Amino acid sequence: MKQKIFFLGLAALLIFSSCQKVITIDLNKTNPQLVVDGQITDQPGPYIVKLTETTDFFTPGAYPQIKGAIVTITDLQGITETLQNMDNGTYQTAKLSGTPGHTYVLNISYGGKSYTATSSMPMPVDIDSMTYGWDLSGRRPRLTLHGYFTDPQGINNYYRMHFLRNDSLMDSSNFLIYSDDKVDGKQAVINYRRGINIGDSITLQLMCIDKGVYDFYRTANDILGRSQITSAAPSNPLSNMSAGAVGCFTAYTIRQKKILLQ
Amino acid sequence: MKKTVILLILNFLAFYHGFAQNKVTLSGIVKEAKTGETLINAIIKVKELPGTGAVTNEYGFYSLSIAPGKYTLIISYVGFVSKNIEINLNTSQKLNIELSDDSRDLKEVVVTAEKANSNVSNTKMGTVHLDVREANKVPVIFGEKDIIKTMTLMPGVITLGEGNTGFYVRGGGADQNLILLDEATVYNPSHLLGFFSIFNSDAIKDVNLFKGSIPAEYGGRVSSVMDVRMNDGNDKKFGVNGGIGLIASRLTVEGPLGSENGSFIVSGRRTYADLFLKLSGNSQLASSSLYFYDLNAKANYKFGEKDRVYLSGYFGRDAFSSANLISTDWGNATGTLRWNHLFTDKLFLNSSFIASNYSYNNSRTFGANSYNINSGIRDYSLKEDFHYYINPENNLKFGLQSTYHTFVPATISGDLNALSGKINSIPNKYSWENAAYISDEFGVGSRWKMNLGLRFSSFSLLGNGHEVYTYDHNGVATDSANYASNTFIHTYYGLEPRVGITYLINDESSLKASYFYNQQYLHLLSNSTISTPNDLWVPSSNNVKPQQAQQYSIGYFRNLHDNDFEFSVETYYKNLYNQIDYRTGADLTFNPNVEQQLIYGTGKAYGAEFFLRKKTGKLTGWVSYTLSRTLRNFDDIYNGATFPARQDRIHTISVVGIYELNKKWSFSATFVYYTGNAVTFPSGKYEVNGILLDYYTERNGYRMPAYHRLDISATCITKKTDKFESNLNFSIFNVYAHENAYFIYFQKDPNNANNTQAVQVSLFKFVPSITYNFKF
Hints:
The complex is a heterodimer.
Chain A: H1 2-14, E1 19-23, E2 34-41, E3 48-53, E4 55-56, E5 70-75, E6 80-82, E7 84-85, E8 90-92, E9 103-110, E10 113-120, E11 127-135, E12 142-150, E13 158-165, E14 168-169, E15 177-179, E16 187-192, E17 201-209, H2 211-221, E18 246-260
Parallel strand pairs in A: 2-18
Antiparallel strand pairs in A: 2-3, 3-8, 5-6, 5-9, 7-8, 9-10, 11-12, 12-16, 13-14, 13-15, 13-17, 17-18
Chain B: H1 2-17, E1 24-32, E2 43-46, E3 53-55, E4 61-66, E5 69-76, E6 83-89, E7 93-94, E8 97-99, H2 118-121, E9 127-131, H3 132-135, H4 147-151, E10 157-159, E11 167-169, E12 177-181, E13 184-185, E14 190-191, E15 196-197, E16 204-210, E17 224-230, E18 239-244, E19 248-257, E20 262-271, H5 273-278, H6 283-286, E21 289-303, E22 307-322, E23 326-342, E24 347-366, E25 369-391, E26 394-414, H7 416-420, E27 429-444, E28 448-462, E29 467-471, E30 477-482, E31 488-506, E32 509-520, E33 522-525, E34 536-539, E35 547-560, E36 565-582, E37 598-614, E38 619-634, E39 643-644, E40 651-660, E41 665-674, E42 678-679, E43 684-688, E44 691-695, E45 702-703, E46 707-720, E47 725-733, E48 743-749, E49 752-762, E50 767-775
Parallel strand pairs in B: 1-7, 1-8, 12-17
Antiparallel strand pairs in B: 1-4, 2-3, 2-5, 5-6, 9-16, 10-11, 12-13, 14-15, 16-17, 18-19, 18-50, 19-20, 20-21, 21-22, 22-23, 23-24, 24-25, 25-26, 26-27, 27-28, 28-31, 29-30, 31-32, 32-35, 33-34, 35-36, 36-37, 37-38, 38-39, 38-40, 40-41, 41-46, 42-45, 43-44, 46-47, 47-50, 48-49
């Protein structure tokens, strides 16, 4: 018994007793910057562009909505449409129809400045299948979902994933993305186990995005939460917006599959 | 160019020969009485000739040329009892001297009150000498003695964050320090992601850190040189010593080889932190392993009076594996074969053949498939170092060095390509680095001393049979060419002068000034704040220019109270060129074209260092204070705005005290206080798809909170006889449990999605440890 206590004591000393607390820091005031969150997909519209502004870091509450902008989307292989201003910081299309293989240009004119972004809609990739099972490698078995899709060979593909639990989007602490930078033309498997239970119906949405959008999500993940820790010099993500605006305009395709965990 | 250098050497030799005619030479080795370990930097003074003396070199050798006569020699070494020897010197002769650290061991007489003032009178500036015996008395976390951590208690040397052995000298980067273990370059000095250094104190004799004027015999890094020398082994008797600690144990075996003609030492250390993982209820953790070990071995043998051969090696490895699916291991291996030869009693030559290898392996198993990725760097070097003791006022050093580097970015074996279809091995890179140097330390009159050094270095990137690209400012390839193996792609060379001047105001005080310029041809690519094993060394190339540094320093040195106290103030100003950073979002892993991701800028650093040290008595220790700034400037970072480097820290104070209460008990304490180093925090925020993103407006525009900590340690000698010695060491790290910020991150308030918050993470609060050491 004594020996056991001794070892427990040693172990306690060894395990880095890291401790966390919320602290107060003074951060500088910032100049508000346009934030773009816009998309066009291969599903029927309307498509929405949401405009807000950055705030100081500790400013509570909602972000200021940008209501007085002129927003257009041009299909380089088709029409240009001026989006309808919904007066709550969102702007939506009426005519445009997203088509894989087309390239779209977003133009925003606001406060005497103009901002643009270009995004190409890749060809869609289907989900081959979904399964689930118990991962036994941990202390207790964990329910794990597997989604399979086949990456097209010879071209660069970039993906983003969403998981919906009982048809509502599950929170995620970062952007779930995947690229074939290192693995090309193989069947890929996506494992997911956070917050799912027997009885849930889970939908996997697989989105195909272009490199510019992927780089935005990838570099955004580098500064999310604790990822800041090991980054020697965190910086703003690579945005596809011009003129200092932040955020991203993305043209993507979407395919989905649903499975009931029972 | 090389011809000129050689001519210059010949000139020096011819010129000085004339002075030495009617003098005789006393030469030999200074050793520790008990173990026979040679003593580096021991001082030999001649009582009858004030200001005349010699200092032992890295092999304990000294040479002193004076007129024939009757003299009293005073031999001293920090922490040892000084010795007086009367000698009637008629002809040149050998005199080997033994010093003891314990007055009771002295069978001969004479303990002298004479104390060394060499720190005042020599031309060295910005040099820290650590005697490992002394360093071992300083308290450290988990009771693991660590020379790098002790070094960071010295002025001008800092570490970023707790448990990080990466160190920064006078504003330079962590990759700008040349770390040598018995002359072999150590490319990664850390274990366990930086929590421990690879230097096992039991195997280390002596450490010198050059942070100011780097002597001409060293080169290749722009910030500092840390020269670590291994123990030679006891040449008098066979001995074993070791220690059992909380997380690691050590064992050393040493002994003579053939009746005091040689000796050997083998020293090992292993951590067993992973044994505790087995106790874990988590089966994944329990099947994981995480440990490191070190093995140091050295042997030397004397062939006659003029030749001695040394063979030394280091092998260390960190290993981590998880549930037998992933395993990584990394570490350094070095080997040095040296031959000391005395041509005359004044001309000493050391020839070395050195091999150094840092490698990192990563293996994975996927079902039936498995693969291994290997990366690292390998060096083979040859060195010739001459030391010519012309007379006590004039010491000449010259030599040649040549190194062949092999860079291994990623070599893949196994099924990875079958698994990925895209990843291939990245071809090795090769380069050849050469240098010739000459330096001369001489007196001018009785008050002035000068040290002039000149180093000529060259670096050639060699072809590997693959395409070599040239990139423009934006990282876009503009040109490419194919170079066959071992053809020259690009060669850089440069002259690197060093100048040091000392003016002796009186026996107790001096003014010193120095200047140096040098170049660095190898660069470490890492965009992480912690020391990770896969950080990559890359050579200078057609795209990556050598880093360069210029440093000016002025200092005032004064000894007080009959040389009991050493005091110094040194100021420095440093310009840095071709500094390297990364483009935003750079992906450095597995990237065959990493050079595309690099951007280049300049830097400067300046500061003042105050140092007061008490060397003798029951209470010894030091107080150091550093005031410094270090800034960087890159066209591609925030439009060329000057920003503080991460290691920019304005105030740093350390206090170290060691108190020998009696024969049984000794105590030590360390206190550290510093203001926060520069860090990048967000100033604003925004949301995309409901995810909070930080909005940054500048690089390193904020400061971490100030850091302070007190550590204490007590050592109790439990047994001490001629045959057996043992002691127990108790220590407490961070006694008053101050929560020092390890890092700070920003997030949405988990309890209120409308708010955002800053969270501070602290690591070690009040860590006690105990170590048992023995020796027989």
